[in-house]
Amino acid sequence: MREKTCCFTGHRKLPSKKIQNIMLNLNREVDRLIESGVTTFISGGALGFDQMAACLIASKKETGFNIKLVMALPCHGQEEFWNTKEKEMYKYLLEVADVVEYVSENYSNDCMEKRNQYMVSQSAFCVCALLRDRSGTGQTVRMARLESCHVINIAK
Asked: How many CA atoms, within 13 angstroms, populate the side-chain half-sphere of residue 50?
């Protein structure tokens, strides 16, 4: 169901002065995508924008939207070095997700890239918070364009 799927990609650290605007834009774009028939949203589960987007989808599900949250994770244990609060949020997102997909069993140098490729290959849309082209987010956006995803940058 690629045509009804959207993935998210964004930086782990966003400038504090931009977060409110990014959240407002994210909410607006997600509502627009839902209205146009998108039913599945994929988050990579990383800190920062990935979790921000996953939390928004989880809250929309809780308020009655008939949508799915897929957590596409690079490997088991990605949260190993996170602090307690970050681990608790991650655990919550895994619990409320409709699907948890591990792209690799164990960490490898390319497991993040494989996760990103998996997300864009499943999606017709890619909502991003892209501020720096030379980044993992920039790489994912380039992948999305190669896969003919409609890319929506909400960080501008």
From this structure: 26
- Sign, Cα dihedral of 17, 21, 27, 33: negative
Read off the pLDDT of residues 68-117 as tens digits, 9 standing for 90 and up: 999 999 999 999 999 999 999 999 999 999 999 999 999 999 999 999 99
Q: Which one, of 1, 17, 152, lies nearest residue 70 by Cα?
A: 1
> What pTM, to 2 d.p., does this model score?
0.96
The letter for the amino acid at 90 is Y
Question: Domains in the chain, start-ordered, CATH in brackets?
Answer: 2-153 (3.40.50.450)
